[in-house]
Amino acid sequence: MLFGLRGAIIILLLLAFWGPGIPVQPMRTVVLLDQSPSAREAVWKVAPALNLPGAQYVAFASGATQVANPTARRLDLGEGTRLQEALRKARELRPDRIVLVSDGLFQDQAEPIGVPIYSFYQPPSPNLSLSLLAPALPAKGETIEVRAVLEATASVRAKLTLDGPAGRLERELQLAPGRRSMGYRFRLDGPASLTARVESALGVEQTRLELSPADTSRVWVLGDAALARYLKAQGFAVEERKEITLPIRAEVVALGVGARDLSAAELDALQSFLQQGGSLLWTATPRGLFFGGWERSSLAESLPLEPVEEPGGVGIVLVLDVSGSMLEADKLGLAVVGSLELIRSARPQDYIGVVVFSDRPRWLFRPRPMTEQGRKEAESLLLSTSAGGGTRISRAYLEALDALENVPTDSKQVIALTDGLAADVTPSLYDAARDASPKIKTSTVAIGADADRQFLRELAQAGGGTFWDVPSPQDLPRFFLEEAQRAFKREALEGSFPVSVRPHPITRNANPPALSVILPAKTKPWAQTLLSSGEGTVLAVGESGRGRVAALATDLSRSWQGWAGVSALVAEVVRWLSQTPARPRVQAIREPDALRVLLEGQFERPSVRAGGLEQSLAPTGPLRYEARLPRDTVGQAVILENEQPRLRLELPALPEWRLEDGRENLRRLSEASGGRLLGDTAELQKLKGRKALPLQWPLTALAMALFLLERYLERRQFQRMIQGSP
């Protein structure tokens, strides 16, 4: 008996391992019908044989939808083949198995859904496809070749026509099954388009390719209409703006406005723009560069030019009212803010002093050179000013004249500012102004409605200066800015100034004529001179933060008006500015045998991750890298640096028709899911129609029970043997 039980246990375990089942309910079958352009004709032809008992049907192309029967014809699902979308739709129907009827030419990679797939291959319809293959990241002015690629699935005679910048090209071709290509060469001087058309017995195919140089950049231009006009002529995406807004959607910002024309927030935005890899270009319009005070702005350290200071400075003493009435409407605070602008605008050879008065005069600081240290000390003393007392101006004014006598500058000026009626005005005050006026001019400023305008006007007239009426205290800071521009005026030189060129990618092929106007400037030590005139710099470039900077010390609305090459020169400047290491570019090109990924930018060891694979990008030139991925890679690619994502790129889709073994694609897909590739409709009809209840675990449990029974009987038998022994 024990031997019989042991034999039964062995048989049960073998049965459990084999995995038999009892058919108990129908199999839920979903049939996926490929109705993409390449497969629909063949699928429609075989559709009547796909009528399976109890099956549900999903038609798919780019999209997917459930249909009532296999003979349904849908032409509204797109012109591609997206298997993942079809599987997602099938999953909603909770299938036990999927039957896939297709040519196996999918434009995506399907993720497994845990359901066996039985594939039924249908050959694609005969086709002649046409595509245009462009070079990667072409440069402006480069002679490029675009390849027209023809892929035929049958022998056919065809006529190919190419229309583009180099004219029309026509060819009569006898095509065999396979791939053939033809080149079309032309010079890329700006945005261009190329149209290709192929006519054959298989139909007409037409495609169009739009090309732009890889260095065509977006440029914001503020205050320089001439520059904007030149850049538009070169094909740049130019936006003329009056203000800086966030985010800055450009690679280059050109500034023909002054620093004082922009708010502090706008200047901060430009500083951040540089740090993030953007670029700035300054031009010497009447309001730009040094005329606009950029050398004294928060961006001064990023400016590649500095003014050439003419010998001889300016001496200014500010006679400032600090009487009690200056506390009203914050007149003193606004006057201090304006005085700070005057100090910040001064050059190292300029002397500035400030004497304040109320009941008596008091020097904040006597005239001193406005070196960096002198400016810092002057600013600190001005910020400590307080108000109180009456309005007695005479002694303060006379001390200002006396202090300027010994200042070693060619130009000297007193600026007297008050908001009230002075209590100590005498004729001798006007006499002192007249006596000093050959060497020292006196200008006066009236603030608010209560100022003694008659006295201030007469004092300015006696001193040979200007009377300024500033009725609103809020206008004081701007008044001082304008006065600084007048006092420390930098003038452009007019005439004929020959230009010398230094070698650089920007200046290749450049031979500029003489300038009509030039702003005296010199290149900072960290920047590079590209154009010069005598000792002066015309064009300087450099790097700042993670971006690039350039400054042009001439006004394009007045210089080089008759030179045909000016547009190309400024285009080269902007092109160089836009190619910063912090602004990498990536492009994917699908070729007949591979997917090329090209990268431009500052990287150390970049790699690309796509389709579950990671591959290093090999250097091919300065700041250029390349990788070749498998031809069927689809989806999204990620560029990594030190294993950290830097850029994301949507890969171009696979073509609908292509020279590929769709049967083999279906076989791999089916076997990976636990299904198989079917040979014909007869095999399809033979698929099991009912779902079996698995007996593996019941058989295993019964075998365990018999094993325990065997052990029990064996123990009983052993005990009897012991009890029966003498």
What's the pLDDT, averaged over the residues? Answer: 85
Structural class: alpha/beta
Kindly state the percentage of residues in helix: 25-40%
Distance between the termini: 26 Å
- Count of separate DSSP helical elements: 15
In percent, how much strand structure appears in the residues? Answer: 25-35%
Describe the model.
There is one protein chain. The protein is an alpha/beta fold and 726 residues long. It has six domains: 2-12 and 695-724; 21-124 and 660-693, Rossmann fold, CATH 3.40.50; 126-213, Immunoglobulin-like; 218-307 and 492-578, Class I glutamine amidotransferase (GATase) domain (Rossmann fold, 3-Layer(aba) Sandwich), CATH 3.40.50; 314-487, Rossmann fold (3-Layer(aba) Sandwich); 589-654, Sandwich (Immunoglobulin-like). The protein has 15 helices and 41 strands. The chain has an eight-stranded mixed beta sheet with strand order 15-14-16-17-31-30-29-26. Strands 4-3-2-5-6-40 form a six-stranded mixed beta sheet. It is elongated. The relative contact order is 0.12.
What are the key terms here?
726 residues; elongated; 8-stranded mixed sheet; 41 strands; 6-stranded mixed sheet; Immunoglobulin-like; Rossmann fold; alpha/beta; 6 domains; 15 helices
